[in-house]
Amino acid sequence: MPLKNEILNRWLGRADAPPERETVVIEPTQASADWHMQLDEEGRVTSISKSLRGALALAAAGMPAQRLLAYLMPSSALVVEGVPREWLGHMLDLDFKRPNGNVLHTRGWVQAQGSSWLLQLLDIGDLMEEANVAQSRQQCLRLAGHMAEKVRGCHVERLQSVTADQLEELAQSYRVPCLALVLPEPGGVGWRVYAHYNAHTAPQLWQDSQRLGTDLDSLSGTVTHQIDFGVPTPLVHLQSAFGNAQGFLLPHHKEGSVKAWLLFGFYDAAQQVPDLGEREWMNLCSALAGPILYRHADQAHRHQLERLAVLQDLLGTGWWELLPDSEEVQLAPQLARTLGLPETSDVLPLEEWLQLIHPADRHELESRLSLLRDQGAPMLSCVRLRQDDPGEASVWLRIQGQVLVSGQARRVLGFMLDVSDIKNQETQAAAAHARLDNLIASSPAVIYVLEYDRGALEPTFFSASLAPLLGWTLAECSDGQLTQYIHPEDRDIWFQRTRQLLREGVVSCRYRLRDKKGEYHWLLDEARLLRDDLGMPVEAVGLWLDVTEATQATERVRESEERYRILVEDSPAMICRYTPDLRLNFGNRPLADYLECTPAELPGIDLGEWFSAEQKEAFLRRIDELTPESPTTTAEICLELPGREHAWWIWADRGVFDDAGKLIEIQAVGRDNTEIRRTRMQLNQSAKMATLGEMATGLAHEINQPLNVMRMAVVNVLKRLSNGDVEVDYLTDKLNRIDTQVQRAARVVNHMRVFGRRSEIEQQLFDPIDAVDGTLNMLSEGMKGKGVELKIDEPGARVQVRGHVDQLEQVLINLMVNARDALLSKREKNHDFEPWIALHVEQDEQTIWLVVGDNGGGIDPRLLERIFEPFFTTKPVGVGTGLGLSVSYGIVEQMGGRLSVSNSSEGACFRIALPIVRE
Ligand code: ADP
Q1: Please, what are the domains in the chain?
Q2: In contact, 45 and 71? CB cutoff 8 Å
Q3: Tens digits of per-residue pLDDT, 296-317?
Q4: CA dist., res. 649 & res. 639, Å (int)
Q5: For ligand 1, is residue 691 a contact (CB within 6 Å)?
Q6: PAC domain: from which residue to which, for each copy (predicted)?
Q7: Which pLDDT band, with edges at 50, 70 and 90, does 319 fall under?
Q8: How far is the CA of 864 from the centre of ligand 1 (A)?
């Protein structure tokens, strides 16, 4: 205590207040001062007490008289300005230099000693030190407070950068080169740099987010205690945290364990800041780490809550709790929203809560709740929300609850989950299932399931339609009995079907299966194999459809088709189908035989190849005229088969049309008419020859006439010549006359030769008047000779008809010769009779008529119908052939025309009607 007092006095400068000018002997008179110095008037040091010399480690003697300032630190220069006299009565705080660099803090005053001055000094080093320490601690506290405030107050997103700023401040305050705050890894194991500061001059020791591993954990139990902040400060070597640098580290403790570290790199705290104690350092660390950790925990908590809220929102779920003592229930805000409660009311009376539930489920929930509350029985219940609009889909909630006991407190809580999706799906699935069941039950097909058991398929299910269809039951079909019911002829199909089903997974086949009454049904069997995830067969599902009727109908159709096919094949007629461009689709054997190929070679053959251009054109024209209304046409067609005679077919076509009325195919039946045709042509020819023979008398006259003229001319010329009268003009005249007659005879003979020829195969276009002219050429002279007058009309416009000109001529000759015969026989009875034959032409747009009439009295009406019959004649045997009119009729018909007869007032009248062909 006396010591303390003394120190305090020294501090306050009260120690023996310096007297105004007092003579003081240096030693040992001034016991109150520690040290003395003798100064001269100018302030130069003349002597130094021994103890002061010791304290300043100065040599004993031989010192030059230096000014006092030379012994002092520069900071004391102001204090010793001027000369000692001026310092009198002042407290002088003087810091002396020590050779080791330390400072000797003193407080002194001067006293006059004659002409010199005595400077007495007290050591105040310890006082100075305490003051420094206190100041340091205060500064430290301020810094800690400032840092804590900053990290507490900043926005959480800026927390890390603010921390870095605080580290910088801290580092600058204590000249720390490298500083880092280390927090636990987010995962919990090991440590990680949260923020750091690095002075520009120092090597980079740490980085943000750097992982430091778990080495720090080894320090957490012990090192804090070992760190002694006294002198000397122990330095921690920690490879993982500090590398090879020296440094020290501060832990932040909470709840008995280290929660953060503050690392100081390249730093010796004891040396740099000797004034700070362990507590101050720890304070600093906690001031920074504490709030950060708190804010992190707070943020994590908030995140947790947000996640929970989002989860509840997404799931349409939320917690609820029955509040003890009040009949109230508290709901999570999300749940309140789901239930459509107002934002503010998350607490509501239990009764109100129950009112939200559908009446059908309300009592169940109420009863389960009371069981839970009273007996602690865990609750699980699915309920619907009350529906105000019956059209809306139901909202299903799964409500779960349990009792939570902690200490004395007993809480009843749980959660509600919106399970509408699942419930609605369940309902839909159930409905679909019911529909499917219905469908299976009402299906006319038998649906079956076969279970797979080591390669065998055993029936496990048949739909209800099995009994009405086959009469069997499932039991009667199992254990391989099914095979017995299969028709013996179809057993191969049956076994093959099972093998294929197992091998390929799907099968479709038909076989006969016996029903309970013993009758066989044709079944269409379609099955599919179902496999598990590993591809192993599990079961087969299939159906049987009774196709007996269809199968029989198909069979009948097939049989009838076969019959028709045989009919077509074996028919003597040629039958074929061809497209409108005359390509064969099908032809039967007779057609193939005719064309000298096989039936298989027929499809694709072009019928048009065997037609002449004209025939083809006529054929196509005929086909073109087919319509759905009049789909058939018949014609005699002429084919030119290479290397063979012309063939004549009677050909009947029938068009097949599509829905749009377009001709798609023609079906045709043909008969070879060549023989008949040839016979008819022969007949024609013979008739023609007969006509010719008939005309022989007329023709003899025709030729006789010119011969007579020539003979007369020759006789006359010879007579002149014998008279010697050779007159050239006369001779020339006679010879010309002879020549004219020769030409006339030649013309007649020529025409007969042409007429006698066989007709051309093909019909030609010609002018019918040519036939009239030819006929008159041959007959007119003869007629005149017999006294029959010919009345010929001038023809009208020239037209063309199709046929053979010689044949039409033949017809006209026939008609005129018949008329002549009738006229001549009439004149035999009446010699005054004047016979005539009239030939005139009528025409309109389509038709030309050649009309031959006479005044021979006509034909007996009873015979009119018969005169066109072959071999009908009224003429005596050997005169008439009875072919003339019959052949004529055929010729005109071949030309597409018609020959008809009628009786006029004077005689018979024959009309040849011919269609006009216009190009
Ligand atoms: P044919 O002249 O060889 O008897 P046709 O077939 O030419 O054979 O004539 C058949 C019959 O028709 C004749 O026998 C005749 O009785 C009768 N007939 C034909 N033309 C006439 C006619 N113009 N006037 C009267 N009868 C006719």
Answers
A1: 2-123 (3.30.450.20), 143-302 (3.30.450.40), 316-386+394-418 (3.30.450.20), 441-553 (3.30.450.20), 571-670 (3.30.450.20), 680-915 (3.30.565.10)
A2: yes
A3: 999 999 999 889 888 888 877 8
A4: 8
A5: no
A6: 507-559
A7: confident
A8: 10
Which of 695, 815, 818 should be mutated for ligand 1, with most atoms under 8 A from CB? 818
Q: Give the position of tokens 């929930």.
A: 365
- The model's confidence at residue 225, banded by pLDDT at 50, 70 and 90, is very low
- Separation of CA 852 from chain center: 85
Length of the chain: 919
> Which pLDDT score is estimated for 678?
83
The residue nearest atom 8 of ligand 1, judged by CA position, is 882
CA angle 71, 72, 73 (to 5 degrees): 135
Expressed in angstroms and rounded, the spacing between residue 693 Cα and the centre of ligand 1 is 16
Q: Containing H/E element for 664?
A: strand 663-672
Ligand 1 centroid from CA 881, angstroms:
10
Tokens encoding 823? 């006229």
CA–CA separation, 464 and 440 (whole Å) = 8
Average pLDDT over residues 616-644: 88
Amino acid at 612: S
State whether the beta carbon of 317 lies less than 6 angstroms from ligand 1.
Answer: no
Task: Determine contact, residues 485/514, Cβ cutoff 8 Å.
Answer: yes
Do residues 449 and 540 make contact, with C-beta atoms less than 8 angstroms apart?
yes
- The residue contributing the CA closest to ligand 1 atom 22 is 819
Tens-place pLDDT, residues 787-802: 999 999 877 788 999 9
775, pLDDT greater than 80: yes
Whether the CB of 874 sits within 6 Å of ligand 1: yes
CA of 867 to the centre of ligand 1 (A): 7
The pLDDT value recorded for residue 525 is 94
- Separation between Cα atoms, residue 337 and residue 321, nearest integer Å: 16
Question: What's the alpha-carbon Rg for the chain, to the nearest Å?
Answer: 73
Task: Assess whether the C-beta atom of 908 lies below 6 angstroms from ligand 1.
Answer: yes
268-272 average pLDDT score: 77
Ligand 1 midpoint to CA 868 (Å): 9
Ligand 1 centroid, distance to 827 Cα (angstroms): 16
- Helices (DSSP H) in 726-873: which residue ranges? 728-756, 768-785, 805-829
Per-residue pLDDT tens over the stretch 726-750: 788 888 888 888 888 888 788 777 7
Whole-number Å distance, alpha carbon 774 to ligand 1 midpoint, is 22
Q: Which residue has the higher pLDDT, 511 or 214?
A: 511
Whether ligand 1 lies within 6 angstroms of the CB of 903 is answered as: no
pLDDT at 147: 92
* Closest of 389, 369, 382, 388 to residue 421, by C-alpha: 382
Q: Is the CB of 250 under 6 A from ligand 1?
A: no
Evaluate: CB of 856 within 6 angstroms of ligand 1: yes
Say if residues 450 and 539 touch (Cβ distance below 8 Å).
yes
For CA atoms 829, 831, 833, 835, give the dihedral sign.
Answer: positive
